[in-house]
Amino acid sequence: MVKLPDGTVHEASLALGLGTNNVGELSAIGLAVDLLDKAGFPPTDRAEICTDSKYTFGMLELGWKVKSNIELVMGLRAKLEGRNVRLHWVAGHVGLVENERADTLANAGVTASIAKGA
């Protein structure tokens, strides 16, 4: 889910098939950037992306050493390079409306994966 400065909201979910929660959390960041691009949001404008995954926050914002999901993490780092993006960690499942909506979209992706037989 992406909310633009004018209040417009863009949403999407992904059917990832089999994968870990960390893969899902990382993929959500890539999907958010894709939504920004589709909405015509300039890469030089400041974008704030929230995640409830400490792993994702550490990998992409704090520069933690990559030991797994190497291709995905490195691809996201490259995708974020040159963009004016800052990630923020937020607590999950504490009633933050946008975070709860993101969780609903993530579950939609899981449901789509199951439907595809992944």
Task: List its traits.
47% helix; Nucleotidyltransferase, domain 5; 12% strand; two-stranded parallel ribbon; 118 residues; two-stranded antiparallel sheet; 4 strands; alpha+beta; 4 helices
Q: How many distinct folded domains?
A: 1
Share of β-strand residues: 5-15%
| Distance between the first and last residues' Cα | 24 Å
Low-confidence stretches: none
Question: How is the main sheet built?
Answer: 2 strands, antiparallel
* Shape assignment: globular
| Rg over C-alpha atoms, rounded to the nearest angstrom | 14 Å
User: Overall pLDDT, averaged?
Assistant: 88
Secondary-structure element series:
EEHEHHEH
Strand order of the largest sheet: 1-2
CATH architecture: 2-Layer Sandwich
Structural class based on helices, strands and sheet pairing:
alpha+beta
Walk me through the topology:
Elements: E1 2-3, E2 9-10, H1 21-38, E3 47-51, H2 54-60, H3 70-80, E4 85-89, H4 97-115
Parallel strand pairs: 3-4
Antiparallel strand pairs: 1-2
Helix pairs in contact: 1-3
